[in-house]
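Q: What would this chain look like folded?
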Amino acid sequence: MAKLQNIIPVKLITKTVGNINVDIDELTFDSRKVKGGCCFFAIRGTQSDGHSYIPQAIASGATAIVCEELPAECPANVTFIQVENSSLALGYMASAFYGNPSQKLKLVGITGTNGKTTTVTLLYRLARRMGHKAGLLSTVVNYVDNVEVPSTHTTPDPIQLNALLRQMVDIGCEYCFMEVSSHSVVQNRIAGLTFAGGIFSNITHDHLDYHKTFAEYLKAKKRFFDELPSDAFALTNTDDRNGMVMVQNTKAKVYTYSLRSMADFRCKVIESHFDGMMLNMDGVEVWTRLLGRFNAYNLLAIYATLMLLGFDKNDILTGISDVTPVSGRFEYVRSSHGVTAVVDYAHTPDALENVIKTINEIKTENQRLITVVGAGGNRDKTKRPVMAKVATELSDIVILTSDNPRFEEPEEIINDMRVGVDASQAKKVITIVDRREAIRTACMLALKGDIILVAGKGHENYQEIKGVKHHFDDKEVLTEIFKSLQV
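A: My prediction, written as structure tokens:
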């Protein structure tokens, strides 16, 4: 419970109507959840406008309404707060309602196209390994220290987010590591939070279905750094051509990391094998079970972040040598006949290219790479032909199949992908709509020593078709097929 007058963001208010010295028991932007003591936020969304539900919220007993436009009639028993942006107000008010929990721990966010989940998950694991209570907010799962909380979005809504941060503070967490998606920045889901640091991994082609242009996508990522406080750190990857663009207006202290040039934190890949790689991390050789240059970047960002947070260098390097891959990120299954299958979440052209190049760097000339890949429905269509082009140019055999078709027809998605296949590469491409059959075919085609890459879904244990999620786990399917075929 909180007094309305204590949680309203004065700088955002245009007008108030009614008594602001009232008790608020809950916050919600869903009119179906309104009850007595609630403050309802009328937010303009992509599908509907919350202002249309103000009468319903009032009828359900809302104590206060936060809106951008006041209704024609304002009942005397309801307080109205008019603001310029309701979603922004929600962020600040949710933070205040829960006692500004982000100010009571060290909150570190990472934004970028690829590497976010691996980076925050391993930061969380290493902080706890070194004896600290910590929280995790990721695409895969959320954790309040050791208690798992299911994840539905890359970044929860401001109410869920602050409630989770409050739980972390209440049980003594010192740190929280969270993914910050471009959607969450634009939709003000992180408004009102106080970050101790921000990390930029990279930016490539993704989410143009939402942002429309790459410039708008970049702008959304950059806004996270623009709003960091002066006592925070901003850690950026200078090997990405937009790495320094991200931090050019930040008030935070800027630090850099790189595998290719001079930077505050540096790393070099010395050896790569299927069971791990040897790195030179800031002048010290360290073995890790993670694979690929993209993971070298992730590990360097992790090392740099923990150093900036004041952790001991030797403890960090010892932890890095012991970490295991994050679920669905370059996980592999081996058959009894010597076929290796890699499962990876790669669902953008850049991520797919990184994974395939990593495999090609490790495999011998006699080993073939068979890539099974699709693209999600009702998402950015422009990346579909690019992903098919990357797969066919860098693999020996490619099977185009379904990912999460959602409300699109899988055949149409695959047809969009085939546009990117050059005529000279067409013979190596097979189309199998059913994902299980596509994986089975890859296993049947594979000879001893060959490598199968099943890309796109990674940790997901479902396939979404026509609005229904059906159980489907790539790693599970591969294991079953390997056993049935005895290959």
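The radius of gyration is 24 Å.
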